[in-house]
TrEMBL record:
<feature type="signal peptide">
    <location>
        <begin position="1"/>
        <end position="28"/>
    </location>
</feature>
<protein>
    <submittedName>
        <fullName>Putative MetA-pathway of phenol degradation</fullName>
    </submittedName>
</protein>
<dbReference type="InterPro" id="IPR025737">
    <property type="entry name" value="FApF"/>
</dbReference>
<dbReference type="Pfam" id="PF13557">
    <property type="entry name" value="Phenol_MetA_deg"/>
</dbReference>
<keyword id="KW-0732">Signal</keyword>
Length: 251
């Protein structure tokens, strides 16, 4: 755990360095692993229908589901994620079931117009999946902090991280990430991400990955999001490749 925390601090310093170097408000968060500090607009909804997955030498695991976000108050977003999980072991067989339901609340307590950065906390509770083959059958809590900076010309950077803790988990773990996005066309945004996570269980190594993402706005209410990622540390064990795809409805 000590080694993992040192790595987390180093990556956090790197993310901070990227944010410091890079000098139109951007929509962030999904499709990336790292989140952003911008809550859903007050009295508005963001609903993602998504599919994601990761392939390692042991097989492929992933989820499909719906991610509900509601702007419950200025600077406050309430979130509920309802996923169905799947597990395709390399040796054959398929496991499908309800994965970990997520409940979260994002609160932005600092703003760019006054502080220079948007800063939010976004605690997230993962409920037990109730399955030994899909998801995690133990409850856990992610405690992260996220920051963002936007510039004229279509550039934006966001990132941060936190740790996941559980009374019943043998190993708590931490994660950190940084994303740089660019509004290349009026309806198309692209971005790149560096992400790191410490070992999340005994015998499972830490992982570092790089990914690219995009968002295409069909109109004000319908949006297409995609993301692909590959591990650059312990690749075969943790992340030979990953993906995320979703249709976002905003209203």
């Amino acid at each position: 755990m000590a080694t993992g925390c040192i790595r987390l601090v180093r990556l956090g310093m790197c993310a901070g360095f990227v944010l410091a170097l890079l000098t139109r408000a951007a929509v962030a968060g999904p499709p990336y692993v790292s989140d952003d500090p911008e809550p859903t607009d007050y009295k508005h909804f963001e609903i993602y229908t998504f599919n994601n997955g990761t392939t390692t030498r042991d097989g492929t695991t992933g989820e499909s589901g719906i991610d509900f976000n509601y702007g419950a108050a200025p600077d406050l977003q309430l979130t509920a994620t309802l996923p169905a999980g799947f597990d395709l072991p390399a040796g054959g067989g398929t496991n499908v079931g309800l994965s970990n339901i997520e409940l979260a609340a994002k609160y932005r307590f600092l703003h760019q117009d006054g502080f220079g950065l948007d800063v939010s906390v976004f605690p997230r509770i993962f409920l037990p999946s109730g399955s030994n083959s899909v998801g995690d059958n133990r409850a856990s809590l992610l405690l992260p902090i996220w920051v963002q900076k936007d510039w004229s010309g279509g550039w934006s950077a966001f990132g941060g991280g936190g740790c996941t803790v559980s009374e019943f988990r043998a190993v708590d773990f931490c994660q950190a990430g940084a994303v740089l996005t660019y509004q290349i066309l009026p309806k198309l945004q692209i971005g790149a991400e560096l992400f790191h996570q410490t070992a999340d269980s005994n015998g499972t190594p830490a992982t570092t990955s790089v990914g690219i993402g995009w968002r295409y706005d069909l109109n004000d209410n319908y949006h297409l999001l995609g993301y692909v990622r590959r591990g650059i540390e312990n690749t075969n064990e943790t992340d030979q490749y990953s993906w995320y795809a979703s249709v976002l409805f905003t209203f």
